[in-house]
């Protein structure tokens, strides 16, 4: 029987897990869940006889891929697939897919929610600031960014983006201004929503030189990946510019040091951008259906390797 392993250190909401199980079983496959595992070896062991794997941020590295003799497909139920060893998968003929857009509203709502929370001094009762009439810079313009722009406009913010790989005319249709340089984006953004993937070219690209262009009282909100931040540069910026705030859903490696800056930083206790029932249902169902379409019909839509 075709075995689909759902390996989620951070489990899907029960309602989503039940739907995923139902879809997989209706196709005549077996659904096996490995949730909240503490050792990566548990994932390696569970993958051994899997034909297909659904993951979230779980590390589908070479050890997992090489041990899974029957493995045909890995679907990352979400957007970023930097947690999958694409080279190892390709070498073994394993197809890797993501489910773009399925959890993007949840991430965007968290980005704006954290902006309000920190702009209101973490609800400590003191006088904060509003989002209305401020400029929000949106770095990158994928599915999350589109949702950030939509919600930001509801707050009465001016939305501007830098997204060189996207068609500017399409972006302008969303009522978002487009600038030609990343420096132009950062220099006018009171709030900056970081929504770029952890591609090699983006790693450590958010550095001191760029951050120091931000206006007084600016706030950088990262719901993307910690790897895109140059952490030494961020620390320098926070030390020199006491008006600057850094808010992130993915705590940096130097989180303990940065927390000494007090209210200048805020990190969620665990990455929770996509932690909603709706996002779990959307991404989980898409992942299950993509596996079935691939195994039954060879459909490789959303293949990333
Ligand atoms: C994604 O890339 O889709 C998001 O970062 C969500 O990741 P998660 O599924 O681990 O919450």
Order the strands across the largest sheet as they lie in space: 8-7-6-9-10-11-12
CATH classification class of the largest domain:
Alpha Beta
Strand portion? 15-25%
Gross morphology: elongated
Low-confidence stretches: none
The gyration radius over C-alpha positions equals: 20 Å
SSE ordering: EHEHEHEHEHEHEHEHEHEHEHEH
**Percent range for helical residues?**
25-40%
**Strand segment tally:** 12
- The CATH topology of the largest domain is what? Rossmann fold
CATH architecture of the largest domain: 3-Layer(aba) Sandwich
H/I helix tally: 12
- Number of domain modules: 2
Name the CATH superfamily assignment of the largest domain: NAD(P)-binding Rossmann-like Domain
- Ligands bound to this protein structure: 3-phosphoglyceric acid
Task: Tell me what the structure shows.
The protein is α/β, with parallel strands linked by helices. Helices cover 37% and strands 17% of the residues. The protein folds into 2 domains: 3-102 and 275-297, NAD(P)-binding Rossmann-like Domain (Rossmann fold), CATH 3.40.50; 104-267, Rossmann fold, CATH 3.40.50. Helix 4 (86-91) links the parallel strand 4 (73-76) and strand 5. 3-phosphoglyceric acid (3PG) is lined by residues 10, 56-57, 78-80, 103, 271, 273-274.
């Amino acid at each position: 029987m075709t075995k689909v392993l759902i390996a989620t250190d951070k489990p899907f909401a029960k309602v989503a897990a039940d739907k995923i199980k139902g879809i997989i079983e209706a196709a005549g496959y077996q659904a096996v869940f490995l949730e909240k595992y503490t050792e990566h070896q548990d994932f390696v062991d569970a993958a051994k006889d899997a034909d297909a794997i659904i993951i979230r941020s779980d590390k589908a590295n070479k050890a997992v891929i090489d041990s899974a003799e029957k493995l045909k497909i890995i679907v990352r139920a979400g957007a970023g697939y930097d947690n999958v060893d694409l080279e190892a998968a390709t070498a073994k003929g394993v197809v890797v897919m993501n489910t773009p857009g399925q959890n993007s509203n949840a991430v965007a709502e968290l980005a704006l929610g954290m902006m309000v929370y920190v702009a209101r001094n973490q609800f400590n009762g003191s006088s904060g600031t509003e989002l209305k009439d401020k400029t929000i810079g949106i770095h990158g313009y994928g599915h999350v960014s589109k949702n950030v722009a939509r919600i930001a406009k509801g707050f009465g913010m001016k939305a501007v983006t830098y997204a060189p790989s996207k068609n500017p005319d399409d972006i302008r249709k969303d009522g978002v201004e487009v600038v030609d340089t990343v420096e132009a984006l950062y220099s006018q953004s009171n709030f900056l929503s970081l929504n770029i993937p952890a591609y090699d070219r983006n790693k450590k690209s958010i550095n001191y030189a760029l951050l120091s262009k931000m206006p007084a009282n600016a706030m950088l909100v990262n719901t993307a990946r910690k790897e895109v931040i140059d952490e030494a540069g961020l620390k320098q910026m926070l030390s020199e510019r006491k008006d600057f705030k850094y808010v992130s859903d993915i705590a940096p490696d130097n989180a303990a040091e940065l927390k000494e800056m007090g209210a200048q930083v805020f990190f969620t206790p665990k990455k929770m951008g996509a932690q909603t029932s709706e996002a779990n249902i959307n991404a989980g169902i898409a992942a299950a259906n993509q596996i079935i379409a691939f195994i039954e019909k060879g459909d490789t839509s959303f293949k990333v390797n």
